Amino acid sequence: MHLEPEYKKKEKTTKLVYLDAVYNSIREGLSANFVLPFAMAMNAGNEYIALISTAPGLIGSFFQLFAQDLLNIVKNRKRILFFTAMLDAVFWLPILLIPFIWESNYVLLLNFLIIQAAACALMNPFYNSLLGEVVPVEKRGSIFGRINQISGILAFFSTMVAGFILFIFSPANPFIGFALIFFMAFFSRAISALIKLRFYEPPIESESKGESLFHFSLNIRKSNYGQFVMFSSWIKFAVGLSGPFFTVYMLKFLNLDFITFSIINGGSIISSFIVLNRWGRDIDEKGSRRMLAITGFLLPLIPILWIIFRQPLILFIVELFAGAVWAGFNLATSNFVMDATTHKNRLIMTSYFNFFIGTATFFGAILGSVLMNNLAKNFMGNVFFFVFGLSAGLRIIFCAYFLRKIKEERFVSVALPGPKSKRIVTIRPKEGTVWEFIPRRK
User: Fold this and answer.
1) Can you give the CATH number for the domain in which 234 is found?
2) pLDDT tens per residue across span 256-298
3) If DSSP codes are grouped into helix, strand and coil, which group holds residue 254?
4) Angstrom distance (rounded) from CA 314 to CA 305
């Protein structure tokens, strides 16, 4: 019997990851920018906008803490990926029925979104863990950059389609448009779940949970990875402070229609898939920390530009800039997590990272909603601008404080003299140095 080599199985899985990204990005484009407008159409207030934006992520990140225990029970990452993705898909069906059956109950919407978030949160560390073993380490940045580039293109077009659907149905009944959008999100996510069943899964062993959350939290300042987690969490706190209210600002304060709303949001997607490939190569060559520093200090400009400009065309350009910055920051973040962890601890360390991120984002949004609800609308000129400005200021402070403490986790492309050229492909802090020998050309 002919057994297919492992490297061939990994190559096929990498191709399937591209295909999975296609359908998952369609789901994201159809749903990510339209859940908050859906809640606003059901007359949800600022406090529920903040909760809907962040509570699912917080509770989902809590479920991630049990990922290792679940793996020790199921012993198969593919099954977990399939069932969690399918659970996410199925719950789009009751969500789209809420306005027709439950009289626009946005509290019920929050509960359904929490279930979806728990499923997605459980799925993500297994997905990252599996990809960390399948995708070659020296090509991660460029491969993930290309995947995100493809995803960005499809997310943009699906966002435009969703905006057009809402523009058509809004005069009569916007909930019909939302129902159509969320049904397409269900269909694309279901296909994505089926694709995950075809992934190759390297052999795994049941392991203990490793370092506890309490011990990790207690010693978080003592490690480079801990400093990185704190930096990312405080940045997300600052972003959460203003993030949920950009949608409210566009639809209620600027009174934009859904087409204009979709085009402006699409700006960030367009720039993402333009720059991601270049960002990926840069990370492969120079490491993640440099990209974190560059994009981290550009993040405060985004809310500042939203304060200065109100014209839709200029806001579209602002979102082009924002998309490029966030593309580099998020790609560097995901690569840093992979570089700073090993295949043995990646699952639990990714779970801890996401738990801190979810908690920080939640409390940032709660503070933002308290400010929005309790300050006068004309506070310091405009309460939206005050919240946006506070978010920008905190981003600057956290970048200045933490980035000087974070060290690079990998070294790349170091050529040594001799009859053969030896270069460092990567240095993994807990796994040693990975070398590659390249014959010299005469």
Assistant:
1) 1.20.1250.20
2) 999 999 999 888 888 877 787 788 788 878 888 899 999 999 9
3) coil
4) 9
